[in-house]
Amino acid sequence: MKIEILGMGCPKCKQLTANAEAAVKELNISAEISKVTDIDKITQYGVMMTPALAVDSTVVSVGKVLSKDEIKRIISK
Amino acid sequence: MVKPIIDWLVYDIFKMRQGTLFSEALNFFLYDTIKIFFLLTVIIFAVAIIRTFFSPEKTRAILSHKQGYWGNVLAALLGIVTPFCSCSAVPLFLGFVEAGVPLGVTFSFLVASPMINEVALVMLWGLFGWKISFIYIGSGLVIAIFSGLVIGKLKVEELVEHFDHKKQTCCAQPIGITFNDRVAYAKGYTADLLKNIWLFVILGIGLGAWIHGYVPADFLAKYAGKGNWFAVPLVTLIGIPLYSNAAGVIPLVSALTEKGVAMGTALSFMMAVTALSLPEFIILRKAMKLKLLIIFASVVGIGIIFTGYLFNLILK
């Protein structure tokens, strides 16, 4: 599973990254978490509000710091 | 309704003599703090609920079909209700332009969105009254519409960076949202916002209360009264680096208007604080050439300065 956090480095993006890391750890799954800060990539995803979260190249949330539990629910689907 | 309780607290419980500088300042501080926090909580929550009905995607879809003046008018109006955060300014800007929203229309949105925001409106309404709030909203809309029209006429499309017509590979799909989701979002939004601004609000009101109580009336009339033509452009410049402190700046300005700062000058200052923001410019530099940023800041700045002079003439 590939989890991407889209954002140009705002404090909220850091928080979302931390929550995603915690969610992956608790679910005990292997997932690669990466930050996407490149504006060209962010616009290619069609994201206009950051931070956004993409799972396996599909955007699942925009403009929101999802909580650890919300991320767990999304990625365990 | 709050006033008698505060009076009772300050004069009866704290046993302070009415009419002393300190008791007046404390009374003013407590009253304004309670009033502003009550208003902030209610209004931010209401605005957050309204915002769940608007998304940048929807706004973009509406604006991409609009040409001419109506596009700018609509963009400025939608700027008020569409969620906006300066940290998302770049993807939003590029997202609009790449989807075919005219550049001038995009700028109308980009000016109105941060300038006419719920925090500024609550502070204005609570501390200056509805009349000044409406003047602020009205002038803000006019500045946003005209700035967009001017930038649109200048044909500066080649100054946008990272612009490419490749359509996006996918789009963030709007997920079905229930009433409970809206309330949950609004609760979270209100709590987050209050957490970010409460200290500035208290500091602003505190300093304002001190000025209210201790600084002699008309103290500033000589420097920032109507007679000083230089005050309007000067406060507009000073407002640029103060963005994140809009919540603290407005109570301060409110107190200063009692001490001789002319109303138009005060409006210019508050508009510069909200609409011209240095951190936002630094972020936007990633999507615009420096020349376009300077054009953007100058056009909006001139609009703000003009508004200041205008209301210094009109208001008493």
Topology of this protein?
The complex is a heterodimer of chains A (77) and B (316).
Chain A: E1 2-6, H1 11-27, E2 32-36, H2 39-44, E3 52-55, E4 58-61, H3 68-75
Parallel strand pairs in A: 1-2
Antiparallel strand pairs in A: 1-3, 3-4
Chain B: H1 2-13, H2 21-51, H3 56-63, H4 68-81, H5 89-98, H6 103-115, H7 118-128, H8 130-153, H9 179-214, H10 221-224, H11 231-239, H12 246-258, H13 263-275, H14 278-284, H15 290-314
Helix pairs in contact in B: 1-2, 2-7, 2-9, 4-6, 4-8, 5-6, 6-8, 6-13, 7-8, 7-12, 8-15, 9-12, 11-13, 11-15, 12-13, 13-15
What is the oligomer described by this structure?
A: heterodimer
Gross morphology of chain B is globular
Helix/strand order of chain B, N-terminal first: HHHHHHHHHHHHHHH
CATH superfamily of chain A: Glutaredoxin
Question: Helix/strand-derived class of chain B?
Answer: mainly alpha
CATH topology of chain A: Glutaredoxin
| Structural class computed from helices and strand pairing of chain A | alpha+beta
Computed over alpha carbons, the radius of gyration of chain A is: 11 Å
Strand content of chain B: under 5%
Largest sheet of chain B: none
